[in-house]
Design brief:
This protein is an alpha+beta fold and 461 residues long. It has helices at 11-22, 25-32, 51-62, 72-78, 94-100, 153-158, 182-188, 197-203, 206-218, 224-233, 242-253, 258-268, 270-274, 276-282, 289-308, 316-323, 325-336, 344-362, 366-378, 391-395, 400-414, 418-433, 436-446, and strands at residues 39-40, 67-70, 87-90, 104-107, 113-118, 121-127, 167-170, 175-178, 190-191, 221-222.
Length: 461
């Protein structure tokens, strides 16, 4: 006998019905908006489009809203790269998006975004924004402090940073919408700001770092006006929010093109503003080759590692320790005059002094600071371990994996020490296989003996 229980509608079916029931805006938009003509996206293979993102766009369009893929995913598809994620832009407000999707969560305070969940796949959906209004106060102060106004597809494209990042793709019609001549720049492999570069970079100085990232990672040439503005406005990076700056620096490290990126940071003057310790360490124009060459070789090893395994991104703690590995080694030499080895507590103190200026300037989290510090302190264990040292316990410790990765990258950069790396791979294998009795034996062997206090004899003062 068939069940009389009503079938629960699928998410794709329920959303538009609920939207029409709760809001009359959908039908009005559906009948009032002419179809926007675009450029056929003949170079993009339809099978390369994310199916979940297409579902989001389709449902929004069926409800009468404009909706497109936007930003980096469109750029990457046009140059033959597979996007890491797909973002959607629409004229639907966040509350309207949430009514259409039960699997939606609204995030953000200043400007709300919709995250639509399909398992582990998150489709970020943003409402079109308008160009920021003029800020009150000094006319020469262009830094954006309020960017909250909703707008149209055209205004949303015009408020973005670079022309190649402002392209829209309609996956339903398979057409590109280009409001800022981004297609021509992409074909010419040129990176330029939308509008006056001095104005756009002054509005948000972090765009200087984003320009470096796109140029290095995508092999785009920065046009002359944009480059000149980057050099002139690099000091304004001090005005940017430290967490944003740190995140962009870490993205440069994870780009697979960190050598080119950090060299451009030096050329425009950004490294001296953001990480003056590294600028001083390298010397002007790499005039201290015994310092500069190992640093660039280590970044090259990192780039090779990222390109070989792009899905396994290095942690912030590992990247911070890598950037300061050579300054830390020099600080250790200065502390001991190269004559002796410091114990773990003394090495930790040196690591704290090396990392603390960056930590304060970028508001590095305590967790990442502690991880970077432990990774640096552990480097000596691979070649010159202290007394009462257990290879098994070290290989099973929390910091071993990242410490070993830094040691491996430094060995690769030097072109020496591969035999030590292989030996530690075997030690790690044995440590993982060790049983509880063996681990307890190692703990007892390495435990510091407590000094027994001498008893006073009776009558002794």
């Amino acid at each position: 006998m068939p069940s009389r229980r009503r079938r629960k509608p699928h998410e794709d079916e329920e959303g538009p019905q609920r939207s029409r029931r709760h809001s009359g805006r959908g039908s009005a938009r559906r009948t009032g908006k002419p179809r926007r003509e675009g450029i056929p996206a003949t170079s993009i293979e339809p099978e390369h489009l994310d199916k979940d993102a297409k579902r989001v766009v389709r449902r929004l369009q069926q409800a009468g809203f404009e909706a497109y893929f936007v930003g980096g995913c469109v750029r990457d598809l046009l140059i033959g790269r597979r996007p890491k994620d797909f973002d959607v832009a629409t004229d639907a407000r966040p509350a309207e998006v949430r009514r259409l999707f039960r699997n939606c969560r609204i995030i953000g305070r200043r400007f709300k975004l919709a995250h639509i969940f399909y398992g582990d796949n998150i489709i970020e959906t943003a409402t079109f924004r308008a160009r920021p209004r003029e800020q009150p106060g000094d006319d020469e102060e262009l830094l954006i402090v309020d960017d909250n106004e909703y707008g149209s597809a055209e205004s949303d494209a015009e408020r973005r940073d670079f022309t190649v990042n402002a392209l829209f793709l309609d996956p339903t019609t398979h057409e590109i919408h280009d409001f800022v001549k981004g297609m021509a720049d992409l074909e010419d492999r040129v990176l330029r700001t939308i509008g006056d570069p001095e104005v756009r970079l002054a509005e948000d100085p972090v765009r200087i770092l984003r320009a470096i990232k796109f140029s290095a990672r995508l092999d785009l040439e920065i046009d002359d006006e944009t480059w000149d503005a980057m050099c002139e406005l690099a000091p304004d990076l001090e005005k940017a929010a430290p967490p944003r700056v740190l995140e962009e620096i870490l993205r440069l490290c994870r780009s697979g093109a960190s050598v080119a990126a950090f060299q451009m940071m030096r050329d425009v003057g950004a490294l001296a503003v953001l990480v003056p310790q590294l600028e001083d360490h390298l010397g002007p124009e790499d005039d201290i080759p015994e310092r500069a060459e190992p640093f660039w070789d280590l970044l090259a090893a990192l780039d090779a590692r990222v390109r070989a395994n792009p899905r396994n991104q290095p942690s912030a703690g590992l990247l911070i320790s890598l950037l300061f590995a050579h300054p830390f080694a020099l600080a250790l030499e200065d502390e001991t005059n190269g004559d002796q080895l410091l114990d773990a507590r003394s090495r930790a103190s040196v690591a704290w002094e090396v990392l603390q200026p960056l930590s304060e300037a970028t508001r590095l989290s305590r967790k990442d600071f502690a991880r970077a510090r432990r990774v640096l302190v552990a480097q000596q264990n691979f070649t010159k371990p202290p007394e009462r040292f257990s290879e098994i316990l070290f290989a099973r410790s929390e910091e071993f994996e990242e410490a070993f990765e830094l040691f491996s990258l430094q060995s690769q950069a030097r072109g020496a020490g591969s035999d030590i790396v292989e030996a530690w791979v075997e030690r790690r294998r044995r440590a993982v296989a060790a049983d509880l009795d063996e681990l307890e034996t190692e703990r007892r062997r390495t435990r510091k003996r407590k000094r027994r206090r001498r008893r006073r004899r009776p009558g002794k003062g």
